[in-house]
Amino acid sequence: MILLALSFTMPAAAQEDMSRSAWKAKAYPALPNDVTRRQVVIWSDGIRMAGDIYAPKNAAANAKLPAIVFVHGTGGVKKMPWSIKLAVECARRGYVFLNFDYRGWGESDSRLMTLEDIPEPDKEGNVTVNARAIRWQMDFGDQITDIRNAIGFIAGEPNVDFERIGIFGTSYGGGLATWIAAKDPRVKCAVAQVPGMGGGRGHGYYQHAYTLMAHQARGDVEPVPFKTGAPGGTMASYKHMRYNPSKNVVYDVFQAVEKINAPLMIIDAGKEELMDITQNGGRVAKIVKKIGTPMEYHVIADMTHYGIYSKHQVSVLKMELDWFDKHLRAADSEDPNRK
């Protein structure tokens, strides 16, 4: 992703206390009478991730509903107000909606990095160690695994039709969602809004990433970014986040979508301030159109990157839900849960 040196208003959430306890203490807003929410634990690589499942309250006990798994972008968590609003509207439209926090984000448990030699395990395999909690990593490899386990969780819900699972990603989560849609056969439809697809990577990026990998492997620098790796430039307000290019170097959305079968909708911002849309969403749209997979590409002329979470959320979400309906609910015209 190319980060451009432009000024903009950073979402308030980027300035908040981002500790796990702070997010756990944050209250949920009241739900409308026709939507339910249930907190769940999703296991990913042995780490507990916190999730919320939203569903239409009037669904029959034996209903098999389509489902949507939501994939966040930089610093995004399931308790952000715009995220909850999105979840509620999807549930009111008749979907089971899973909103979750990646490992080490929001309310989810952290991956641990041991700070000393690990002692011999006891007979049950248990050890006591001095360890550091690894949090707020933008680690595409781990997050791809987290998303796949979130899909696995929702596929096991008794009222979900596991043949009708969609994925919905925002910002760099839009790139992750696109990659998953191309690689995971369980995904039958995808939406990526204001997506960072990895456009703009050149020789310099790869040289830096592989050099960093060598230094991390040899212990010359931090094995996992802790004091280092904070974003700069237009992303500097996300000071709690950490980039690790050596973990992200093998992630290539453009290569993945050359074989995508799941219908894909991409929504870009005409006034995008964080990236060149022609090298991100626009580039992916051209590849998908060329191979003939169903897709729609829309540029909202007067929208900024963060406008998708405020001024434009309602109108854009209608387009996105119509897309999911077309590909996940085409045979459900008589479904009482569809509005």
Question: Which key features would you list for this structure?
Answer:
339 residues, alpha/beta, two-stranded antiparallel ribbon, 12 strands, 29% helix
Written description of the protein model:
The chain is α/β, with parallel strands linked by helices. It has a single domain, classed as 3-Layer(aba) Sandwich (Rossmann fold), CATH 3.40.50.1820. The protein is 29% helix and 22% strand. It has helices spanning 20-25, 81-92, 140-155, 172-183, 203-218, 245-248, 253-256, 281-291, 313-328; strands spanning 35-44, 47-56, 65-71, 96-100, 111-114, 131-134, 137-138, 160-170, 187-193, 242-243, 264-269, 295-300. An eight-stranded mixed β-sheet has the order 1-2-4-3-8-9-11-12, with helices on both faces. A two-stranded antiparallel ribbon has the order 5-6. The chain has a two-stranded parallel ribbon with strand order 7-10. The longest helix has 16 residues, at 140-155. The protein is globular. Residues 1-14 have low confidence and may be disordered.
Strand content: 15-25%
Q: Quickly name the level 1 CATH class.
A: Alpha Beta
Tell me about the largest β-sheet: 8 strands, mixed
Helix content: 25-40%
Average of pLDDT: 92
Find the CATH superfamily.
Answer: Alpha/Beta hydrolase fold, catalytic domain
**What's the CATH architecture name?**
3-Layer(aba) Sandwich
CATH topology: Rossmann fold
Order of SSEs: HEEEHEEEEHEHEHEHHEHEH
Give unreliable regions as ranges.
1-14
Rounded radius of gyration (Å): 20 Å
Report how far the terminal alpha carbons are from each other.
37 Å
Number of strands: 12
Q: What structural category arises from helix and sheet content?
A: alpha/beta
Placed side by side, the strands forming the largest sheet appear as: 1-2-4-3-8-9-11-12
Total discrete domains: 1
Please give the count of helices: 9
Write down the overall geometry: globular
